[in-house]
Amino acid sequence: MKRLIIISIIIAAACSVGFGQKKKKDKYKTPQVQIPVALDRTSPASPLDAQSLADLKWFEVFKDEKLQALIREALMNNYDLRQSVARVESARASLGITRADQFPTIEANGGGTFQGVYRKGDIPKPLEETKHPKFGEVLLNLLTFELDIWGRLRKATQAARADLLASEEARRAVLTTIIADVATSYYNLREFDYELAIAKRTLASRQESLRLVRLRYERGVSNQLELRQSEELVYNASEQIPALERAIEIQENYISALTGRNPQPIERGQLLTEQVMPPTIPEGLASDLLERRPDIRAAEQDLLAANLRIDVAKKAWFPRITITAFLGFQSGELSTLLSPSRSIWSIVPEISQPIFNGGRIKSNIKYTEAQRNYLLASYEQAVQNAFREVASSLVSYRKVKEVRAQRELLVATLQDRSRLAYMRYNYGVATLLEALDADRELFNAELSLAQSHRDELLTVVGVYKALGGGWQ
């Protein structure tokens, strides 16, 4: 009973210590950032439709079944994702280690002291020959417990939990990046396929034109200049084919790496021009970005952990109170070692108070405050980057659609021009040069149209990624 009174007096004395400082209850608040009214300046902010891109999951945005299969495979085997999962598990284990400091530690320690009793003048005998060895004592460290009066251990646990949440948000950011990378690579692959089909079709058409020009040249109707011009167009179309085949194989190898497998051919689904676009692209999403983007949420959790660690560093000024309790048995005979009459126990309270440590605590506080300031700037930068990425992706989506529409009109015009030019040449009204120029411009325009189809799909991927992967 006396010992308990002494312990209570010590704890009360420790609680009254604090260097005359009052304990402040500073609660973390999300940093205020300036939010734009609308992220897309080309159109006024408007309420979202019932089903917009931000409300769709990835398999509702990218409807190509082969692309969906590739994304699922990447989400299972991608090395970046596996690394992020391992980081989450590491943060979870670290939280468990930090949280364990709030609980008592129980250990069992055993020890024995062997002694021999001899008469005066006798020569000591070896230990195993003594008749009455003493077995000493066996102690059980019942608990070692630090009283978290100032909340230092609790704050450290909260900081570790914020680290875990940040790692989980980082994993979600990796998921979004992987989905966007696979979709981007797949659309690039389909665009190369589309260009290859155009090149082969153009080559076949030019080879047929060259055959007719050669027949006219052999009959004396055409001249050698027209023959060489026709050959030039054939060679121009021919050189595009191996270059595109090379780009296709390199893209397939990249997609294979994203899905965690060795280089191999990639199965195709819908054609580039058959890809289904999402129903609606959102316009006014400025404030929602703070909740949608996993990188912003991860940055905020990092900032929260840094604020908590400042509090932990400041609490190092306060005394630490530790209680250690022992229970054991002591005997000179093995048969009576565990007898209740031989039990011993002790309770040892300890107080440690830093007095001089060369400025270590003060420097640690400054270090944690500097880390907090760094992470605050990182959070604000992440928010600004999010606004910029969404604004850029929205305007790109709208303007690329306009570009694609104009290129479709251009291709239609050049197709008619090429038909009329060859018709005039066949009737002898115009020169072959006019027809060849029309054919050359048509080929380039068709390639540009294929690229605009791809760019339109890529802007959808960009908006999806900028919104944090949809509302999931």
Would you kindly provide a written description of the structure presented here, covering whatever features stand out?
The protein is α+β, with helices and mostly antiparallel strands. It has a single domain (36-107, 149-321, 360-466), classed as Outer membrane efflux proteins (OEP) (Up-down Bundle), CATH 1.20.1600.10. Helix content is 60%, strand content 9%. It is built from 10 helices and 4 strands, in the order ααααββααααββαα. It has helices spanning 2-15, 58-61, 65-77, 79-100, 152-218, 224-258, 289-292, 294-314, 360-426, 432-466; strands spanning 105-111, 136-147, 320-331, 343-352. A 4-stranded antiparallel β-sheet has the order 1-2-3-4. Helix 5 (152-218) runs antiparallel to helix 6 (224-258). The chain is elongated and about 125 Å long. The two termini are 59 Å apart.
Counted up, domains total 1
Largest sheet: 4 strands, antiparallel
Strand composition percent: 5-15%
Number of strands: 4
Task: Give the CA-CA distance, first to last residue.
Answer: 59 Å
Following the backbone from N to C, one meets helices and strands in this order, namely: HHHHEEHHHHEEHH
Strand order in the largest sheet = 1-2-3-4
What's the alpha carbon Rg, rounded to whole Å? 39 Å
The tally of helices reads 10
CATH architecture: Up-down Bundle
Q: Fraction of residues in helices?
A: 55-70%
Under the CATH scheme, which class? Answer: Mainly Alpha
Summed over residues and divided by their number, the pLDDT gives a mean of: 79
The CATH topology is given as Outer membrane efflux proteins (OEP)
Supply the CATH superfamily name.
Answer: Outer membrane efflux proteins (OEP)
Using the alpha-carbon principal axes, give the shape: elongated
Structural class by SSE content: alpha+beta
Q: Please mark out the parts with pLDDT under 50 across 5 or more consecutive residues, or reply none.
A: 1-24, 44-51, 127-132
